[in-house]
Amino acid sequence: MLRDKSLIPLSRQHQHALALCVRLDRALKAGKIDLESWQAEIAQIFEQEIAIHFAAEEKYVFPAAAKFPELQPVVQELLNEHATLRDLFARARSRSLDRAALSTFAAALAQHVRKEERQVFEGMQKLMSAGEMAALGAALERDLESATNACNLPTARNTGK
What residues does each domain of the chain span? Predict the structure, then answer.
């Protein structure tokens, strides 16, 4: 399903998160990984973009989706996943993630993003009116303008090459 323009800013940030997951997964599979560099990058991305992203979803997207009974269970799952992911981001900030935890982080974040896109966003687009979507988009735009939308490019240092 084509993404409604009101949700595109969040979907772009989802692309950034998925790119991080892919790069991290490839580095882990390559066997050489600089734990310090990866954790620094993860913490930076959280501070610059994901913390604001989560807050906007929790303030606008999830309440709008939860108005529909068929989306309520997935919204609750996503809220629980936000708590789990915040813990993993905090562990990256304190540099306490090991290789296994980095792998868990990448898998959890990728799964979470896909669930939001495939279940909540698509469900909202089917269930909400164009006016409701436009109002949601305007609110998201205001809250997301403080995110840098920074997508760090891989370097030899953080990919383990």
Answer: 8-147
Neighbours of 36 (CB within 10 A): 11
85 vs 155: CA distance, rounded Å: 24
Identity of the amino acid at 53: H
For CA atoms 81, 62, 119, 143, the dihedral sign is negative
Q: Alpha-carbon distance 87 to 17, whole Å?
A: 16
* CATH fold of the domain at 8-147: Four Helix Bundle (Hemerythrin (Met), subunit A) (1.20.120)
Angle at CA of residue 10, ends 130 and 74, nearest 5°: 80
Closest CA to 159 of 38, 36, 3, 13: 38
Which phi and psi angles does 157 have, rounded to 5°?
-70, -45
**Alpha-carbon gap, residue 56 to 49, rounded angstroms:** 11
- Alpha carbon distance 42, 87 (integer Å): 12
Say what the pTM is.
Answer: 0.87
Pair of tokens at residue 140: 């998201």
pLDDT range class, residue 38, cuts 50, 70, 90? very high
